[in-house]
Amino acid sequence: FVGEVDYHETVDSTNDVALAHCRRRAVDGPLLVLAAQQTRGRGRGANSWWSVAGSLTFSLIISPTGLGVSQERWPQASLTTGLSVCLALDHVVPGIRSALKWPNDVFLNGGKVCGILVEVAEGSTQSLVLGIGINVNNSFVDAPPELTTIATSLADATGREFDRTEVLIALLKQFETQFRRLAANDPQLPADWLQRCALRGLTVTIETPTHRTTGRCAGIDPQGALVLETVEGPERFFGGVITSFE
Ligand code: BTN
């Protein structure tokens, strides 16, 4: 599936390296930018993502057109990436069910184990950069309490260490399978997002640039929108930041 690998000991952000590749030339086949360490890893919005020893940080450049994903489905790339991570974790940590926190965080045992940042790269051809940070052998057990309660790693969840190459291979296999399903308009794909939805049934507050809305989460609809039952009826969100869920 992956045509090229660009490995770095240290980079600012693998997403920035990937975006620079796409500006310089047309990247057709999937290209993997992998780094042992990031000094300025970016998250969604103003978040940053520290890559510490033991974590896995990479960006995968894919050509949605090359894979046959029609443009109206591009916004579903984040959920498809998140679902791929969940399904890969089913193999890596069998018995522990991971969940998808819309739009693209992956939770394990109630803590964030993976953050995803999907960006559109403008070059001679349009590509998508799937940026993934996954906590593998790094631990949050001795981290400050504000982190321990929200973050976890595969090692924290299982009490053992993992071969990061094996985790990476499991992830790449799922990216290939799930993006092919997206390209084929597989009608079961939205059902799989819904089944993994960590927010379903919870009271969720979401902020968009203009509004702040609270409601009971009914799930994710077939277009990938988050659905909240509010006092004014069901509302659908294609973007926004979840500021609380309980
Ligand atoms: C988030 O939780 O808000 C998303 C975090 C995404 C982090 C990954 S690490 C690899 C890639 N390079 C970056 O700079 N960010 C993503």
From TrEMBL:
Q: Which residues form a coiled coil?
A: none
Q: EC annotation? A: 6.3.4.15
Q: Which residues form the signal peptide?
A: none
What Pfam families has UniProt attached to this entry? BPL_C, BPL_LplA_LipB
What broad class of enzyme is this? ligase
Listed GO cellular component terms? cytoplasm
Q: Which residues form the BPL/LPL catalytic domain?
A: 1-183
One of the entry's Gene Ontology molecular-function terms is: ATP binding
List the catalysed reactions: biotin + L-lysyl-[protein] + ATP = N(6)-biotinyl-L-lysyl-[protein] + AMP + diphosphate + H(+)
* NCBIfam families tied to this protein: birA_ligase
Q: What is this protein called?
A: biotin--[biotin carboxyl-carrier protein] ligase
Organism listed in the record: Symmachiella macrocystis
Q: Source organism lineage?
A: Bacteria, Pseudomonadati, Planctomycetota, Planctomycetia, Planctomycetales
